[in-house]
Amino acid sequence: MGIIIYVILGGIVAGVLSSAASFASLASYPLLLSLGIPPVYANVTNDAALIWNSLGAILSSGRELHGHWKQVSYYAIFTVVGSIIGCFLLLSFPAKVFEKVVPFFILLAGTMIIISGRKKALTQEIPSSWKKLFFMFMLILVGIYAGYFGAASGVVILVLLTYLNSSNFLVTNAIKNAVCGLTNLTALIIYSFTSHIYWLYANPLAIGMFIGGYLGPIIVRNVPEKAIRWVIAILSIIQAGIYFYQAYFV
């Protein structure tokens, strides 16, 4: 019973981090590893729980998502295609390769969230048609990464959506949560047939993530956008450092 409570509480923390700052894996992935689950299977189990985090965030973001479901569907097409490719890459490559590339993806994501705050200065010289094609292609790439691992993939999706639409941060973050939900659902369907999910831990983790996912958007509404960006960047550096140490020195 103590382990179940531990997983639920960890899921709440992860859910808040995911829906508010796109960093569920900072809490949920290490939590699953601490239970003795191998890295690749921890990722798969994490995907199974993340679906409920997205559902909680969507229910809490009704007013932000109102009128934006067409955008959600459109962006999700690209990330879902990428997710399918990423899932099969994860099942094809050795776990050691998986562990060693993760820190660099996370660090890149943290850098991008700060850079995206200056999006107008960075993209004003790029023709809009080319810019749109570039960011759509990037959505496919981040979908591949989301299916392959997923840590900080929400941050990259958030950055790309910042460039692709003119909505404020609250709306963009809500769209990101919905897009990530569809992307993770795709990965879960594939992994259900091709890999092993530790349902004993995935279910209580999902309960916690649903609660945390619902609380995250409420927190975001009351925190300045600049502060959220810097929190995300700092968390990415911490997580990248932890995974780098585990991959190269343990």
Automatic annotation (TrEMBL):
Main location: membrane
Bilayer topology term: Multi-pass membrane protein
UniProt superkingdom: Bacteria
Stretches that traverse the bilayer: 7-28, 72-95, 101-121, 133-164, 198-220, 227-245
Subcellular locations according to the entry: Cell membrane
InterPro entries: TM_pro_TauE-like (IPR002781), TSUP (IPR052017)
Designated name of the protein: Probable membrane transporter protein
Species assigned in the record: Limosilactobacillus coleohominis
